[in-house]
Amino acid sequence: MLNVLRPDVVIDRASFTQMSEPNRYINDAIQACRRGQHGWAEDVRKALRMVASTTWGRNVLSENPGFQHIYDGLADGGDDRESRVRTIHALEQLYTFSPLINRTRRRDIGEFVTRKPETVITEFTARQKALHDDLLSIIAKILRRLHGNQSVKFMMTTVSRQAASSLYGLAPMLEDMLRGKLERLDSDSELVEEYDKYVDDFADVLRDEIDEIISRARYLDEDDPKAAAFLNIVLAKVREPKNKVLAFSTFRHTLAYLARQLEIHSIRFGLVHGQIPDEERASLRQRFKLNKEDSNALDVLLSSEVGCEGLDFQFCDCLVNYDLPWNPMRIEQRIGRLDRYGQQSDAVGIFNIITPGTIDADIYNRCLLRIGVFQHSIGGNEEILGEITRELQSISEAFSLTEEERAQRLEQLADNKLRQIEEEQKLEERQGELFGLNIAAASWEEKLKRSRNFWLEPSALANAVSTYLARRAGQEQEHLLGEKSVKTLRLNADARAALLEDFRKIPRSTDPVYRLWERWLKGTSPVLQITFDQEAAFDNDEVVLLSLSHPLIRQASSYLCEREPVYTKLRSHQNALPHGVHPFAVYKWSRQGLRRDEELVPVCADAQIAAALIELLATAEFSPDLQLPEQRVLDALDALHHQQWSSAAAAHAEENHQLVSIQLQSLTASHRARTALLQERVAGATNEKIKVMKMAELERAETDYQNRIKQINMSAQTADIRATPVVFGIIEIQGLK
Length: 737
Prior knowledge:
By secondary structure, the chain is α/β, with parallel strands linked by helices. It is built from 27 helices and 17 strands. It has five domains: 2-104; 114-120 and 224-431, P-loop containing nucleotide triphosphate hydrolases (Rossmann fold), CATH 3.40.50.300; 126-218; 454-560, no CATH class; 566-734, no CATH class. Helix 14 (328-336) links the parallel strand 7 and strand 8 (347-354). The longest helix is centred in the last third of the chain and has 54 residues, at 631-684. It is globular and about 95 Å long.
């Protein structure tokens, strides 16, 4: 699933919870619509009354006229399928996050590949089993001594998970813990900020036992069935034509241990985690992508969760989970590195290495495996998956549970949540039967259609760059050479100097692409391999992709931008459109306010021509024999445009007003919750340094809040649509020749 949150939106857990409350009632209303049983309209009205009774509903829905329109419209009749479909679409717009998030679910666009999960069972050796069990016994002692402290619970859970991941990473972890340097998990880092004051306490009492565990862990024999199973998977895969293996572990000590094992067997590998710089991560990904025959290629990439953030591996079809996070969404994110659009194989192998007798094994067998996260994407059930994660954490921290009690609680959890997931999926699968169409799929297709634009296609971008280079670098020679998708950009020193001058006029960016482009312009090489085709760039890392964000495209756009309206005379051959001569205009609308946007708006007296005009401009031919419209005709077009603009500007102002109200409510709730949490931590902190740090964080939070309020209020005053004429002209529609 893809959730694109607007960058100017700040939402924390507390405000998220508050804003999520009315969504339950909105869901109830939508389900009532979908069932379509007798009295469904009243059921929807009842659910809407519950929405209005929530804190969010009272504060925000009063600003949203759509809510009242839905409510009143249900009383006016209309019990047919179309009425229910329209009502569902209207209800979906009421979701608290709908103005802030663009949401696309994986199941809306289908599965990309077949997932082939395989469970690899590796038993402890006798010495490993004894060490693991003795470690759990010490953890129980620690918790009995310091019961009820959440930081210590988290710390002990982390140690037990490291033991389940790799006992060979246990010694360095325990040593780090005693030195106050316990590795922090990204999702739970706040829980260990104050743990160090407890370490000395229990370490003094249990020092001998902990030292013994460290010694036994450090001197374990080399017979490690789990590492051997991992190496078997890797060695088998590297002999295949598609030789790539992406291996995940939550723990850096485990990753370091696996790196040593791969090094012993002379397997080419890379290692990425949160401390690896972005540029180095990108470099490792490129080496990982190289063909196996390349001497610089990598066969295996070892990674933590955060190590692979922002990196895609469609060229790899083998995933190894050396250990598993207890958050199903994290598992989905791991698999999603491979199972995504562009995957080059029909199937992705997923190897889960499990050691019986560990908490991880119980959670895997009794819960994670059963809910189906390894077989297919279940990312649309975020609320259920979040509940599963919280329950798993609770069960894992209950070290007092016997194995039988833990197994029973895990099975009960899986039974309950699996039933919820299945019910939601069945309901969505049946929506096609209920309405005669798949709303999600239809919505996705419509969004995809709207997102396509001839003027942004590779061919149009190539034409713009060619025109720019001809005007700026001279027309005496071709600058883009080659008929295939990969081309050679050739510019002499004078031409590169001219482009460098233009480059310095566009807004700068921290994107590495800008630095590479500037470096080439300043360099001595006259040629650069480029392409406008994303797939061609994907197949060849040495080729520079000229996408919309590339500085050369931005330079071309800025240079070719006409400062005054263009007048043109065109002819097109169409049978489906009204024949004759049609004056037209095109305006650029720049929306101001919280949501900024730009679009080209066609204007024509004939509605059919106006609707098709943007596409017509892409294929129409210039016809010098036609006469441009008289001024009175252009004035009439301007008056028609003003009518359209007035209506759109009013709607935009209303939408901006609603967005401002929502963001102010969200930001205020978020700030209150954040402030309360920080004040609580300041009051409870016994370490003076931590107290000072939290007080400084509290001051920053207040400053950030006041700045955001000021920005939002300013946006409330600037809601407008600025219209600029771009093209005036005439187009003659004739029948096909």
